[in-house]
Amino acid sequence: MVTWTPDPTATDDDGTTPEVTCIPAAGRTFPVDDTTNVVCNASDAAGNEAICTFNVTVDQQAPVIDNCPSNVRTNNAMVTWTPDPTATDDDGTTPEVICFPAAGSSFPVDETTNVVCNASDAAGNEAICTFNVTVDQQAPVIDNCPSNVRTNNAMVTWTPDPTATDDDGTTPEVTCIPAAGSSFPVDETTNVICNASDAAGNEVICTFNVTVDQQAPVIDNCPSNVRTNNAMVTWTPEPTATDDDGTTPEVICIPAAGSSFPVDETTNVVCNASDAAGNEAICTFNVTVDQQAPVIDNCPSNVRTNNAMVTWIPDPTASDDDGTTPEIQQLLTMMGQLLK
């Protein structure tokens, strides 16, 4: 239903105001999405005629908005988008697209704002496009950041792997440099940096150290072989250990000092010290519990002589089950007193 303002009027040189008749008339229903030529006519009393014409276009086709932005997620409150949305219309024009809030505005932090872009053509048809802008300044959170790793293997892994979560509901990938499974320098400490970034560009890191230690501890005071006739065996001093990481690893001996050892046997004692990297040092010694007395051979018979300078042949000798020949001490008793 089309009207126009003001209505056309006519004047004549005879001082009259002839009526103006338009076809089609104002207020009529015009064809949709079509252009109609309107002819307006005025005639005076002498039969002279004047006309005016104009077009009426009933346009119910809205413009088309191109390049409507996708949702924007950023950590910067001053937000722009590229490309800007544009519009075209069936009348051949390019209506202006106005967005509210406009690109370059300051958007609320840690909130989502709905942006509405509008384009209107000359007929009053309107097109809109909408998208969301989220200003996210919350960094992801990294879980399971590894503790420092100390190992004697240059190919280093860690369990569990670090993971990340974000307030947008996603699980950003965590990238570690150097990566798990890399070959790390031996006898050095390497700082590992793990990074996770969300869609808005917020970044979080976690760090830990990897030390590849291939230096075994050093055991001091490793006992010499022990030979005793007591089955309950101890040794002094106890062996101790030091490590290049500054610690003093515990030394564990098997069997332990104070244990009951087998009689008339030799037992190998193994003492072990391990550092945090798994490097191991050992020292070993033997403990023999010997309860077999030596055997004296050629023990002389009783001697009776008139010579105060007494000898006997052969001299007594001794042998032991350990393969040695113990020295024999000869003792003389006189008048109930022991003389050496």
UniProtKB/TrEMBL annotation:
Keywords (A to Z) from UniProt: Repeat
Pfam assignment, any one: HYR
Domain of life assignment: Eukaryota
Signal peptide: none
UniProt KW Repeat keyword: yes
Domain HYR: 1-57, 58-137, 212-291
InterPro entries: HYR_dom (IPR003410)
Keyword set includes Repeat: yes
Alphabetized PANTHER family for the sequence: FI04643P-RELATED (PTHR24273), HYALIN (PTHR24273:SF32)
Entry protein name: HYR domain-containing protein
UniProt source species: Patiria miniata (Bat star)
